Amino acid sequence: MGRTGTTRRGALLAVGAAAGGLLTACTDGDDGSRGPTSAAAVRAAKALRVKSAGTSRELLRQYDAVLERHPDQATRLTPLRSAVARHVTALSPPQPPKKKGGSAKPSPSLPASSVPSSAPSSAPSLGTAAGDTGDAASGPAPSVPADPGAAIRELAAAERRASDAHADALVHAPPELARLLASLAAADAAHAYLLTEGSPS
């Protein structure tokens, strides 16, 4: 039992390093479309990205709601919340390159405001997290139990649902996107374990 904290921190660092490398590698490409690709396949891949980004964005809203209700959990939850914010960024459809003498047309899939520019350094409230939550912030905030332990357990369940959703989606994804979704599914599963393993009673 005395090694629980060290083990948890080590697992978190390992997951963060591995997922971070995969996120960088997967977002540098274009969903693996190096040859001729049908317009239908491109549209399907983009729709899958949007749906998966929505899954991670909803999870991000859950973190924001828990952090607002239980700010004393910030030290523990902020690193995980930051990782989920990076998931949203990685899943956002790539923006077309700007043309000389003018700007490219904005992507119709997601507004620029829905993409977090960087991971937050502290736990923001729902009112200051618009850059991370995007259009999802317009809906009602998720309900959060008054008991911190129950709130953390619900957050762990939300992480498991996100992991399952990404795992289901990767079956229908092109290779590059499938690799990204696999890394996110693994990261979310690890988050769920970390939250459950150290959940306050």
UniProtKB/TrEMBL annotation:
Region (Disordered): 89-167
Basic and acidic residues bias: start-end ranges: 156-167
Entry-linked InterPro entries: TAT_signal
Domain of life: Bacteria
Annotated Low complexity bias: 103-141
Stated name of the protein: Lipoprotein
Originating organism: Streptomyces niveus
